[in-house]
Specification:
Layout (H helix, E strand, L loop, with lengths): L1 E7 L4 H12 L5 E8 L5 H8 L4 E3 L8 H14 L4 E4 L8 H6 L4 E5 L14 H10 L3 E8 L9 E8 L6 H25 L3 E4 L2 E4 L2
Parallel strand pairs: 1-2, 1-4, 2-3, 4-5
Antiparallel strand pairs: 5-6, 6-7, 8-9
The chain binds 5-O-phosphono-beta-D-ribofuranosylamine (GRF).
Length: 208
């Protein structure tokens, strides 16, 4: 059984896609052992509760400084003894210590085809605003391992999504989620649970 901790901040639709994937058998040999959230008002917490998954909220507001917040976050994740940490719309910079401890065991979903529209400042709707401003005809989503850079870790899988002329950032965001994110993230977790994802020299191969 792959023990997964899912880190969330907001709506939790990607968390829901993982929960559904496990329930419906698209993801095998996987258990979400804890949901970790930095935002007490997040809808994602309700989704965890409805699925009977234990959650923990670690909000920066409850700590005097960044260092203490990071310590608490690391502790909360580690307590659950995860094999894999999934960042599913987690709006917190992951502490370097955690990244080092879980090298190639933290994955993130980003709503563009990396290396386009990623890195500093590219999050949420901004990614889709930038894609529309540039006039790209295709965008998509990327699942990648997390290293100490921003959206720079080894890419596991990507899925393309068409951009339409009348798209707004909101309609594009929705389509990228429906057609790419909610498909890709469960698929990558399933591949990892099956031991099929190998990282070598910063590049991923999916083995048979
Ligand atoms: C998604 O677009 C994800 O790619 C990004 O944040 C959003 C999270 O949405 N990193 P949700 O909380 O899973 O609904």
């Amino acid at each position: 059984m792959l023990r997964v901790v899912v880190c969330v901040s907001g709506g939790g639709t990607n968390l829901q896609a993982i929960i559904d994937g496990i329930e419906q058998g698209a993801i095998s040999d996987t258990e979400i052992v804890r949901v970790v959230c930095n935002n007490p008002g997040a809808r994602a917490l309700e989704r965890a509760k409805a699925a009977g998954i234990g959650s923990a909220c670690v909000s920066p507001k409850d700590f005097g400084d960044r260092e203490r917040f990071e310590e608490a976050l690391i502790r909360t994740v580690q307590e659950a003894s995860p094999d894999l940490i999934v960042l599913a719309g987690f709006m917190v910079k992951v502490p370097a210590e955690l990244i080092r401890k879980y090298e190639n065991r933290i994955i993130n979903i980003h709503p563009s085809l990396i290396p386009a529209f990623c890195g500093k400042g590219y999050y949420g709707l901004r990614v889709h605003e930038a894609a529309l401003a540039r006039g790209v005809k295709i965008t998509g989503a990327t699942v990648h391992f997390v290293d100490e850079g921003m959206d720079t870790g080894p890419i596991i899988e990507q899925k393309a999504v068409k951009v339409y002329e009348n798209d707004t950032p909101e309609t594009l965001q929705r389509r990228v989620m429906e057609e790419a994110e909610w498909v890709l993230l469960p698929r990558c977790i399933n591949l990892i649970a099956a031991g099929r994802v190998k990282v070598e020299n910063g590049r991923v191969t999916v083995v048979e």
